[in-house]
Amino acid sequence: MSLSPTLASIIGADHVLTDPAACDLASSDLFDWPERQRAEMVVRPANVQELAAVMKALHDSNADVVPRGAGMSYTGGVVPSVPAVVLDLTRLDAIAIHADDQYAVVGAGCTWEALAAALKPHHLRAVQPNPISGSVSTVGGAASQNIPGGMPAIVGLAVVLGDGTIAGSGSGAIHD
Known about the structure:
- There is one protein chain.
- This protein is an alpha/beta fold and 176 residues long.
- It has helices spanning 4-11, 20-25, 48-60, 112-119, 139-144, and strands spanning 16-17, 41-43, 65-68, 85-88, 95-98, 103-106, 156-160, 166-170.
- α1 packs antiparallel against α3 (48-60).
- The model has no long low-confidence stretch (mean pLDDT 85).
């Protein structure tokens, strides 16, 4: 795909995968979906800024895009039904603990298990209940499906829109 050099300049060539094995794996899910198509490419940004730049490039090229965390959607939501670029968000796994204020800023690709481990030394835990598959499922994946039990404990989101614009919500959108 001709986008590979552009995307590699944004996130590094090691994080733009085009080999069939990686594309096949990134197109899979917990279940076998008959309409599944193999990804054309797998792109693995590391932070919101890289994700925004990648999305702008994909938007400008009119590419079909499927976001993916751990690939445990139970609904086929991470499986391309047309040839598409799969955004593997598992590198967005940063965790910043603000123990005195009792909150954490967590990347969409962070697993619930990693979050629990990071909170433990601070004698904290996530208020948001994690799914049964928390050892491998991602915080962003659960939030995208509004499970489990809604999102009352999520106080803000940074959302990268289809054109690469970053939109903030909640208390995380307030600056200064």
